[in-house]
Amino acid sequence: MSFSREMIIRYTFRGRRRGFSRIVARASMLGMVLGVASLITVLSVMNGFAGELRTRILSLVPHVKVVAREGTLENWSVLAAEVAQLPGVLAAAPFLEDTVLLQSWSRRQGSLMTGIIPAMQRGVSDLHGRVVFGDLDHIVSRPFSIALGSALARQLGVGVGDTVDVVLPTLSVTPLGVFPRTRKLTIVAEFEVGSSLDALQSYVGFDTARRLFARPGADGLQLDVGEPDRVVSVVPRLRQALGADVVVKDWRASQGSLFAAVRMEKIMVGVLLLAVIAVAAFNIVSTLTMSVTEKSRDIAVLRVMGVTGSEIMVLFMGHGLLIGLVGIVIGAALGVLLSISIADLAAAIEQVTGATLFDPSVYYIGRLPSELQWGDVIVTTGLAVLLSMLATVYPAWRASRISPVEVLNNG
Asked: What is the pTM of this model?
């Protein structure tokens, strides 16, 4: 083992190579460095974007909704007190919800209007922390007032203190005919989460929503279970405890397809960048093939000295694998370093060049987020090692099949 280890190190770092062979060996190592570093960095950035999207969206979207199977929950207060006592449930708040049309003096925009009780809403979402203008509590203290997402307010061309007309999905019968129900609402707050919800969501007080939608009770309850992933264990218990009169839905029903698409995108990008590592790994084939040709006399001498073909194969597999491992270690270290500091690096580039890499009005996020997950590092380096090992098999096998008699006779 010590002899094999010494020969592997000698062939890799101290052996004499022809100029082109040396270039190919260094290119293989450099390709491995760039491939591993790029894959770790890109996966970390995608983790960062997915985390930001998840945090922002779930700051408004409740973890769980309990809705009436038919009609409304007229005894919602009793049900809320019962649900809040169930294991895993931290808070409960009622809501009324419907799709409406908002219009200003010259613009119209659809919106998902939700009626809430702000004091109870604090327990199930971070809506109060997302308010950028005005005061959310005014939707209760001021009748027929509304809070809009910042993007929705920009699309309507309105701000705090202005009024908008809400066109409801119900009809009013008058002596002059049938008309859609409308009501003028005063804007008292704007909120911003940095996602598509800013252009869709609006909130009114619970009593205002009951008057607008003409419903006696609540559509359902919004529940907080602490962490979004806990819905996997909490929702089945809720369904069993609450029975068939209500429907229990979690955030995955409305947002699951979005996050599934993000995960699939991460997988596809990972596979594409893995091709870079594969190219670098199979460059080792060229490096080892030339190395076998250059060292055929050394192989013949070793065989005459009693070294077996399998030992020669292990020797050259170790030689090629060591080339790949050096590149993998350097690439992993570089990828981890970039993943940790890429946000600061992007900010420095913006400061030096004066360019805006991520326009918040377009991407909702004004910086380059990154979240290093060691699982990605382990999988990346593991696959790189596997590809490097596979790339060494054929050249090492060829080296083990060299006949010392033919080499020494031709020499």
From this structure: 0.77
